[in-house]
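Supplementary Note 3. Input sequence used for the single-chain structure prediction.
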Amino acid sequence: MVAILSPRQREMLVSVSLVATVACIVLGAWEFIVWKFDLPKALLPTPRQCWDAAVLERVALFRATLSTGTSAFCGLLVAVAMGYGLAVIFSQSRSLRLALFPYVILLQTVPIVAIAPLLIVWSGYTFRTVLIVTAIVCLFPIVNSVTGGLMSTKQDTNDLFRLYGAGRWKLLLHLQIPSSVSHLMLGTKTSSGLAVIGAIVAEFFVGNSTSYDGLGTLMTGWANLLKTDALVSAVFASAMLGVFLFGTVHLISAVFLRRWTSFATAAG
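The predicted structure, written as discrete structure tokens, is reproduced below.
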């Protein structure tokens, strides 16, 4: 059966097999450590206990994952829109890039746990606060990647466009923007995992005083109740959510934007 598979399919099969093998080894080692040292369930439950807790709390987990996923996805979209707009401005004006880019870096370096309480004071215990925190976390990789993409076109290609009378805006629309699509998708892939982190961190604060449903809220509640098995299942759900967002961005890049990523390879 393997012989009739294409090289790409064989590579995918090998990759999945390796990932599954590592997962089995980790789960087996985890189970052995708990059994060997007789660790209490509140400290470290076994994988089977975590699975049982996930099944028991499946409704709450599904609702929380959906809520956090919505926040992460919307925050990522906001970051893409804002980041691309800023990147275009930076690529067209060296003065603005030198003046404003350090503040974009500042948003990345300031701990989000320090910003979140301040945003709650300004925006309240609402979905909007979670959205803002998520967008802030996702912004820098997109701005950095797209700015580099807009400014990475070959000088020979730029000269050819100018030879045919293309001004700054035609150069931007017909050369720089198409060339930046692959960089946009690279930055968005990086930010897709950060979006889940930002949403959950915001929910740690927002969920403390409201009925806001999210994985961060569940984690806080289950940690206080020492429901470690359910807590681990929530952590796993958040990891799978990040993988799903990354996969969605990769699918969009590979299927719907293949023409533009191919153009970037040729023009860059």
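Confidence is low (pLDDT under 50) at residues 263-268. The chain has eleven helices and no strands.
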